[in-house]
Amino acid sequence: KTQITWWHAMSGELGKKLEEIVANYNKSQDAYEVVPTYKGNYTETMTAAIAAFRAKQQPDIVQVFEVGTGTMMAAKGAVYPVYKLMADTGTEFDPKGFLSAVVGYYTDTDGNMLSMPFNSSTPIVYYNKSVFKKAGLDPETPPKTWQDVEAYSKKIMESGAAKCGFTSGWISWVQLENFSAWHNQPIGTLENGFGGIDPKLTVNGPVQVKHWSNLKKWQDEGVFQYGGPVGGDDAPPKFYAQECAMYMNSSAARAAVMNNAKDFEVGFGMLPYYSDVDGAPQNSIIGGATLWVLQGHDEDEYKGVADFFHYLSSPEVQADWHQFSGYLPITQAAYDLGQQQGYYEKNPGSDVAIKQMTLNPPTENSKGLRFGNYVQIRTIIDEEFEALLSGKKDAQGALDAVVERGNKLIGDFAAANQ
Ligand SMILES: O=P(O)(O)OC[C@H](O)CO
């Protein structure tokens, strides 16, 4: 059998499910064996793949998170574009079958899809219905606005129903990038980087500054508890232990939430917005990851990769993965299948993510972002957020620093890739 190596970043419930999908594929045919390897979180997996490529030890497939897209697109000699792979191997492939928000993110300016969508998400609100009830709030009504989040949190804390109002995973992704799209505010010039290689960040606008300054105030009042840098590993336990009543994170946190929220009922809601910001709520943007194929392998392996991708994007496999994980149904057929199966009716709240992402046709500010070196910029965002929380900087100072430090990295990237 020809072996296909796949480096991925899925741990916990998601990692187990990924292995099950691979095992089913391996059983379904005799020619190829896909060998999945967990390489750590998204940043670690991407870094490992780049190092391996330099050492000529690269896997066939690597899972790269959405913010690595700008960097991967520029790595022309290292990447075997998916549209080309599918054409070269004569494998059936219809990019139009994917949801447009997903395709748009991974398509180059000539309209070619460069990586294979697999696990696209968007952030939503999870809330503890049992705590809401104890606090005298309606458990069927999630907060709509940030004003609601504040008022509900105070009621929850004052009634003693929970110690904290809310926590959040992925500060950069949820409280800055998606926050901006949801309020129709630009993250950067040149259509958030989609329109050219040398954009400038603009995350220090008044709406973002107001929000970060509220987050600092809410932290000081105990309304908000920080979940830590990168994905925010400290956030989920605060929600599971019923310390914080609301939790903002990826729609794909669903699998872990369902597994860990044993003693209380969970509700799902869209992200909150400031009702005094014109154009909000707009639509949220995707996160998660896609699969990139790396150069340097033989034709047989690539045939296997294409065959595996075909399997992965079939409606049955996609619908199963989506329904288990909370990742979006990335093809229309997988969504239609879920509807036929009655999945969304039987699982109230399971369609919040897709509704929120498609709430309005995307604007230049809400189709995503594409900046070189953005993985490093994410680290800067975390650092500056921590400087804000510790009182070293105010919100304007922290976000100005993100812009200044981030623009330097984008400029370096543009100079190296022009
Ligand atoms: O937790 P995920 O897989 O939905 O990814 C969240 C962010 O998009 C990562 O950049």
From TrEMBL:
CDD domains cross-referenced by the UniProt entry? PBP2_UgpB
Q: Which domain of life is it from?
A: Bacteria
Q: Which keywords are on file for this protein?
A: Periplasm, Signal, Transport
Annotated compartments? Periplasm
Residues annotated as transmembrane: none
Q: Indicate yes or no for the key word Transport.
A: yes
- InterPro entries, A to Z: Bact_solute-bd_prot1, SBP
- What is one term from the GO cellular component aspect held by the record? periplasmic space
Describe, as the record does, how this protein assembles with itself and its partners: The complex is composed of two ATP-binding proteins (UgpC), two transmembrane proteins (UgpA and UgpE) and a solute-binding protein (UgpB).
Role, per record: Part of the ABC transporter complex UgpBAEC involved in sn-glycerol-3-phosphate (G3P) import. Binds G3P.
Query: Would you tell me the protein name for this molecule?
Result: sn-glycerol-3-phosphate-binding periplasmic protein UgpB
Organism this protein belongs to? Ciceribacter ferrooxidans
Name the encoding gene, please.
ugpB
